[in-house]
Amino acid sequence: MPPKKKVEAAAVSGAARFGRVKNSLKFGLVGLPNVGKSSLFNLLTAQNAEAANYPFCTIEPNESRCAVPDDRYDYLCSIWKPPSEYPAYLQITDIAGLVKGASEGKGLGNAFLSHIQAVDGYFHIVRAFEDPDVTHVDDGIDPIRDAETIQHELCLKDLDALSKAYKAEEVDVKKTQGSKLSQLFIDTMEKVKVMLEKDIPVRDGEWSSPEVDMIKRKLHTLITTKPCIYLVNLSAKDYIRKKNKWLVKLHQWIQAHGGGQMIPFSVEYEQELWDLRDDATALAEQEKVAKSVLPKAIVNAYHELNLIHFFTAGEKEVRCWTVYGGAAAPAAAGVIHTDFERGFIKAEVVSFEDFKELNTGKGMVAIKEAGKYKQEGKQYIVQDGDIIHFQFNVTTQKKK
């Protein structure tokens, strides 16, 4: 019998290269005051965070979570109809609005830049709707100016972090007689500095593996290494007709200043859909006009953090378990319970696609007969959408 092929972990690229390898990562909402952050937070998480029409309504960050939409999960729930159902979740943090000069203490200042440092990625919310009843911190609506303001402040904050890291390294080096700064450290810091002085996010540079490792070890607080998705808040009218004078210009600016996803949406329209949530007929009619874009934003943020999930499914429960992309089977088992990882024996795995194609009921009989229910060991890399049953021995002793 030929040996099983080892499933290799997908290479991590983009901003995820710099991120923490954890299963519980957070995505923040970042932008100027009164661009719709707290209202969006309420819609995403079904919370009631204050969303008033004045600057700095949000002071301390609001935190909650929202379910990650997944048709595969819905399908498994429809098959088993279990009493307990648990989707995957994205952790969301609503951060106070930043203003020009925040890195120098203006507005609510550096405290709130530190809140951005504490999340693992962020939605950059840009206002592109006109409304005289909703105040703006600057005169007139100009999404490009606003985006430039935020990016400039984040780069300034990172330059400050760079300076502190350089001084700290010099102090550490002086403690060792005869040592000096490594050339890799010097070259990497200079490369970071050049990008930040041009207001270009670090995540969008060309970096070698040693440089990535250096940035992660010495500059782990950098904000511009984090994944960013631009959300452009339109009026309901513009969102429905899919037209706004700023969209093309803003997209061009994003591509010229580090790149990234741009998703047009409308808090106004999303609120209309939310208000109809208990009236299925009215909601269906409204969605014929335009559908919510929030599911797309949530899923994209989840994947930008390099998060995936596997399923456990049966008559008692269908659950999504979030793991960091590239996790091996024992680490995934540990998400369920530490004993599962400590006493890991094997994982019985079927991909969702194979399960759906072969499923004739609730069980795995047809899947096993087709040879698609596989036994995997400690080296197996969990794939997004795997349905897994772990076998373990809880009497296995901890290593001393």
UniProtKB/TrEMBL annotation:
PROSITE patterns in alphabetical order? G_OBG, TGS
Keyword Nucleotide-binding listed? The answer is yes
Q: Which residues form the TGS domain?
A: 306-392
Q: Where is the OBG-type G domain?
A: 25-285
Could you state one GO cellular component term attached to this entry?
cytoplasm
Organism domain of life: Eukaryota
Q: Where does ATP bind?
A: 34-39, 234
Respond yes or no to whether keyword Hydrolase is given for this record. Answer: yes
The text of the family note is:
Belongs to the TRAFAC class OBG-HflX-like GTPase superfamily. OBG GTPase family. YchF/OLA1 subfamily.
Q: How does it assemble?
A: Monomer.
Per its UniProt record, what NCBIfam families does this chain match? Answer: redox-regulated ATPase YchF (TIGR00092)
Say what the protein does: Hydrolyzes ATP, and can also hydrolyze GTP with lower efficiency. Has lower affinity for GTP.
| Name of the protein in question | Obg-like ATPase 1
Q: What is the lineage of its organism?
A: Eukaryota, Ichthyosporea, Ichthyophonida, Sphaeroforma
